[in-house]
TrEMBL record:
Residues 29-236 form the Alanine racemase N-terminal domain. Belongs to the pyridoxal phosphate-binding protein YggS/PROSC family. HAMAP family: PLP_homeostasis (MF_02087). PROSITE patterns: UPF0001. CDD domains: PLPDE_III_Yggs_like. Its cofactor is pyridoxal 5'-phosphate. The lineage of its organism: Bacteria, Pseudomonadati, Pseudomonadota, Gammaproteobacteria, Alteromonadales. It comes from the Bacteria. The modification N6-(pyridoxal phosphate)lysine is found at K45. This is Pyridoxal phosphate homeostasis protein. InterPro entries: Ala_racemase_N, PLP-binding_barrel, PyrdxlP_homeostasis. Pyridoxal 5'-phosphate (PLP)-binding protein, which is involved in PLP homeostasis.
Length: 240
């Protein structure tokens, strides 16, 4: 048992999960939205399977992972929990696409045609189409993954014609900023991308934006999925 797994960790995660749901509900109410229109994705990367099971036992089913081999190990260990929905949310290297295609229900970080093609070609025909989000580099950071906003339409068109992928929306991880107006601007820009795609593809329904530090702002801007890790599972090693 790792040092993180104290006797009361299950209670702590349950309380934090409840608090996260309450935070979403409060933000939704404040901005005249239905709380049930905002999905909570519990980001469990670097956390042990015991933490995932603690959240599972309190009703949560959607989990996000960023590191392929770590995630595949967890998915394998928890294979008996067939109703867990696994989302891959990290950068995708070409040599990792097969593992993502074979093990996940969702991929939120497609940023170029090459990756989309590999995921489509490597998705087992016995599995349902891999639900796909396009990651958009909305803050135009040179070192950050995501397609340029100007490339979104062509990438969406490509994915739409991939039989083993199901295009469902967009995701972004905007640059960290202490300027509330800049933060709002990033989210509104992604919302505009989402609205533009939805006008073309009726199945588009996921606007994945907002994390532990900016949930309220994201929900105000229309997010339908917020990715929360620290506030549920505690800080990851190396976090400030």
């Amino acid at each position: 048992m790792t040092p993180q797994l104290t006797d009361n960790y299950m209670v702590t995660i349950a309380e934090r999960l409840k608090s996260a749901y309450a935070r979403i509900a409060l933000a939704a109410k404040k901005h005249h939205r239905n709380e049930h229109d905002v999905c909570l994705l519990a980001v469990s990367k670097t956390k042990p399977t015991e933490f995932i099971l603690a959240a599972y036992q309190h009703g949560h089913r959607e989990f996000g992972e960023s590191y392929v081999q770590e995630a595949v190990d967890k998915i394998t260990q928890l294979a008996n929990y067939s109703d867990i929905v696994w989302h891959f949310i990290g950068p995708i290297q070409s040599n990792k696409t097969a593992a993502v295609a074979q093990h996940f229900d969702w991929v939120q970080s497609i940023d170029r045609e090459k990756i989309a093609k590999r995921l489509n070609d490597q998705r087992p025909v016995t599995m349902h189409p891999l639900k796909a989000l396009i990651q958009v580099n909305i803050s135009l950071e040179a070192a950050k993954s995501g397609c340029h906003p100007d490339e979104l339409d062509s990438l969406a068109k490509y994915i739409q014609h991939c039989p083993n992928l199901e295009l469902r929306g967009v995701m972004a991880i905007p640059a960290k900023t202490d300027d509330p107006q800049q933060q709002i601007q990033y989210f509104e820009q992604l919302r505009a991308c989402f609205d533009r795609l939805k006008a073309q593809y009726p199945q588009i329904d996921i606007l994945s934006m907002g994390m532990s530090g900016d949930v309220e702002t994201a929900i105000a801007a229309g997010s339908t999925m917020v990715r929360i890790g620290t506030d549920i599972f505690g800080q990851r090693k190396g976090d400030n």
